[in-house]
From TrEMBL:
This is XXLT1 xylosyltransferase. It comes from Aegotheles bennettii. Pfam families: Glyco_transf_8. Transmembrane segments: none annotated. PANTHER family: XYLOSIDE XYLOSYLTRANSFERASE 1. GO terms for molecular function: xylosyl alpha-1,3-xylosyltransferase activity. Keywords: Transferase.
Amino acid sequence: VIVHDVNELTEKLFPIVEAMQKHFSAGSGTYYSDSIFFLSVAMHRIMPKEVTQIIQVDLDLKYKTNIRDLFDEFNNFPEGAVIGIAREMQPVYRHTFWQYRRENPQTKVGEPPPDGLPGFNSGVLLLNLEAMRQSKLYNQLLEPSMVQKLTEKYHFKGHLGDQDFFTMVGMEHPELFHVLDCTWNRQLCTWWRDHGYSDVFDQYFQCEGEVKIYHGNCNTPIPED
């Protein structure tokens, strides 16, 4: 077990993610402490070189299977993919990309699965640190100029930290991601059903198969066994 000091991590992170914080943070401006919400984005720059793969998970999860099975998903990464992540299961990005969608009525951006691009949820993340280090494309996308270019293209302003960054990058470069089955991150939050999207909500929220990990996001109770 290796314990990492949050302050030390934040010190290393801040210069790398400062530029993206203004686009993907809830507050106005850039708060030093907010950098920790972007840890996964630059994990490959912070962890020792001998650490080649990491699973990063939220705390509001309930495991129904051995997490070792999730680690096996690293073996399913297609060539070029650096991160394993499940789709977002609410129409949050249908909402966030509203302006881009209005200007591009035929786009798949923000559309529900299986054919659309609903965005990602970062509650369960497989980070192939070695692949992240080796990927020229991924590291270019961390540059402030590239972040600015993409946020302008998609008229993007989010508040969910690393999840927003991965979602926006995924619209442009889906090849960087191995999409995990929804059963690995079965999100339970239904906030958007009651906030203007009840007509399409179930297209995002449905998840077939036996749940392996429940995610009680937005303080949603997780089912008892």
